Structures are given as C-alpha cells and as structure tokens.
Amino acid sequence: MSVRSARTTFDAAVLAIWGDRDHWAKLCFEFSPQGEAMIVSVVTNEYSDDCNSTVVDGGPAYLRVTRSGQGWAFHSSLDGVEWTFVRVFRLAYDGPVSVGFMAQAPNGEECLAAFDEIEYGTSVTADFRDGS
C-alpha cells in the first residue's frame, strides 16, 4: 500500500489493526515534531508504546502488515519492492481483529491521506527481517 499525507505535526496516513480500545496497533507515515516525514508504529496492549523508525525524504511511503499465527509484523518501503522491517509484536487479544486505513490529525484541522496500490495476499515471508 502506498500512502501520502498532509503535513501538520503528527498528521499521518495509517494502516491500523483493531481488537478493542485496549488492544490495537498502527503503522503510520507521520509528520514528526522535527518537521520530518517518518515511519512510526504504536502497539497497545492495555498500555501503548511507540517507535519512531525510518525518515522518509520526499515521495510516498509503502506500508505493510503481515500476520503469522499469533504474531504481527510491520514493514515499510520507499519503492514497494524492498521492505524494511519495523517491528514484530503480538496483541494480547483473543477476539476477532479488524485491519484497515485511517488518517489522523491530532493537532491540525484535518489530514488528507491518499491510499493507493492496495494489495491483499495470503503469503507470509519466512524471515521478517530479510527485506522481501
């Protein structure tokens, strides 16, 4: 999935996983307080932790979520071919989960996010860290 988004601090185009209000995760193409577009992830299992990842210089970013058994993996890419591992995690939630898209603008009036090149597949890479 390729994403583009507006640019006010913390504006983001987001690929989200939702179990309930205490169990969710998101992979974001987000605008940082330092004025940089970057890949950011948040995982919430009652408490949230976030991780700033790669700075993206211009152009869109590609985001990917993969599920393997009880585990989830987030990846980002600049070209949609070579993938950078962001994180692997498990949600402490046994119910059904939803995966979808959203835009966030916690500080600005709105965030316009465009999502394209959306793909769905059933294959899972054998090694989350190998770039495939």
Shape descriptor:
globular
Structural class: mainly beta
**N-to-C span:** 15 Å
Binned, the helix content reads: under 10%
Unreliable stretches: none
CATH class: Mainly Beta
Number of strands: 10
Please, what is the oligomeric state? single chain
Describe the sheet with the most strands. 5 strands, antiparallel
List the helices and strands in order.
EEEEEEEEEE
Global Rg: 14 Å
CATH topology: Jelly Rolls
Q: Residue-averaged pLDDT, rounded? A: 90
Largest sheet strand order: 8-7-6-1-10
User: How many separate helices?
Assistant: 0
**Architecture (CATH level 2) name:** Sandwich
Strand content: over 45%
Counting structural domains, the number is 1
What attributes characterize this protein structure?
132 residues, five-stranded antiparallel beta sheet, Jelly Rolls, mainly beta, 10 strands
Description:
With 132 residues, this protein is mainly β. It has a single domain, classed as Jelly Rolls, CATH 2.60.120.200. It is 0% helix and 55% strand. The protein has no helices and ten strands. The chain has a five-stranded antiparallel sheet with strand order 8-7-6-1-10, with no helix packed on it. The two termini are 15 Å apart.
Q: In a nutshell, what does this entry contain?
A:
By secondary structure, this protein is mostly beta strands.
Write the layout of secondary structure elements.
Elements: E1 2-5, E2 12-20, E3 23-31, E4 37-45, E5 47-55, E6 61-68, E7 71-77, E8 84-90, E9 98-104, E10 113-116
Antiparallel strand pairs: 1-6, 1-10, 2-3, 2-9, 3-4, 4-5, 6-7, 7-8
